[in-house]
Amino acid sequence: MRLCLHRPIIGSDYNRRMPAHAQPDYAALARDIKRWARELGFAEAGISGVALGQDEQHLQNWLEVGYHGEMEYMARHGSKRSRPDELEPGTQRVISVRMDYMPPGMTHAWDVINDAEAGYVARYALGRDYHKLMRNRLQKLAERIRGSVGDFGYRAYVDSAPVLEKALARNAGLGWIGKHTVLINRQAGSYFFLGELYTNLPLPIDEPAGAHCGTCRKCIDICPTQAIVGPYRLDARRCISYLTIELKGSIPEELRAPMGNRIFGCDDCQLICPWNKFAQETVEPDFAPRHRLDGAKLVELFAWSEAEFLQRTEGMAIRRAGYEGWLRNIAVALGNAPPSMEILRALQARSDHPSEIVREHVMWALRRQQAAAPAA
């Protein structure tokens, strides 16, 4: 559920063709692109074609049963999401890149989840928003390609357009799509971001990655809200990432208690995945946790004013939830926390908040706190 409406990077005349005598050695160029990508801080790069017919059908089935919830943008662009050459006419290949994001030295994820008085923020969102950082690196990669072959057509995307990034990355050999619908790399687990360069260069394509989940279903079984309704089938309407980020209204009451203390996103399906024993820590200092968000106390976060929220989340993915959503999410977590006078006072202080959504969730949390409090 990571979306950013950054303007895509525009190359020179996209459909321009090189004269025959100037055709480069595309196999050598592909090897150079992968090397340049690593030099620019990407963990890996791969190249795929544009055929995504089976994935298009999977997406259509997912949309038809309504699993996308309020994410209307998933259906808005028709077949452009699954047909790169319709989104950008002239596209022949897609260069997919991945970048590790798990920062070293942070509070362990399970320690935060098991501390009901702390707020859990998905590990990808603890530091700087990745969109601009990766977009700039992709621009530099495109410039290196231009330096080698001259002008060529390209667009760079990092959650900035209707792109089936996981399917493209799979076809480029960067990993397989697991039963939780997250991309898994055999040597690096799943804690990484994806980005793409659509290009008109006829580069040799890589072998798609094979699947290695086998009979494992740990991700399905651990999901707090049972959002993974079957292998490779995610009902986003039940997913905590959707509920805390994409959903702008009231969180369904039956899903509030299972959310626990997860206030922005959820990593349980990745944390339990055996392949993440191979996960690589990031070397990007910008992804380090800010404002102790890798384990800050709920009461402390709930006390942030709107100005503090905007200042402290500047340049971070957390800003996407909005201040109202931030308070709504924390109110639910406070309702799930062990009863205490400190939490009661914090909730009562927000009971007359101007937002109806915030008030509703605060009152729910107060009822939970009062019902769980020991009798006097």
Provide an overview of this structure.
Helices cover 38% and strands 11% of the residues. The protein is an alpha+beta fold. The chain has two domains: 9-105 and 127-199, NADH Oxidase, CATH 3.40.109; 218-372, no CATH class. A five-stranded antiparallel β-sheet has the order 1-5-8-3-2, with helices on both faces. The protein is elongated.
Task: Classify the beta-strand content into a percent band.
Answer: 5-15%
Q: Kindly report the oligomeric state of this protein.
A: single chain
- Count of alpha and pi helical runs: 16
**Classification by helices and strands:** alpha+beta
Overall number of structural domains: 2
User: CA-to-CA gap between the ends?
Assistant: 45 Å
The fold-level CATH name of the largest domain is: NADH Oxidase
Mean pLDDT: 93
Could you give the order of the helices and strands? EHEHHHEHEHEHEEEHEEHHEHHHHHH
CATH architecture of the largest domain: 3-Layer(aba) Sandwich
Percent of residues in helices: 25-40%
CATH top level class name of the largest domain: Alpha Beta
The coarse silhouette is: elongated
Radius of gyration: 22 Å
Q: Report low-confidence residues grouped into runs of 5 or more.
A: 1-12
By DSSP, the count of extended strands is: 11
Largest sheet: 5 strands, antiparallel
Keywords: 4Fe-4S, Cobalamin, Cobalt, Cytoplasm, Iron, Iron-sulfur, Metal-binding, Oxidoreductase, Queuosine biosynthesis, tRNA processing
Main location: cytoplasm
Subunit structure: Monomer.
EC number: 1.17.99.6
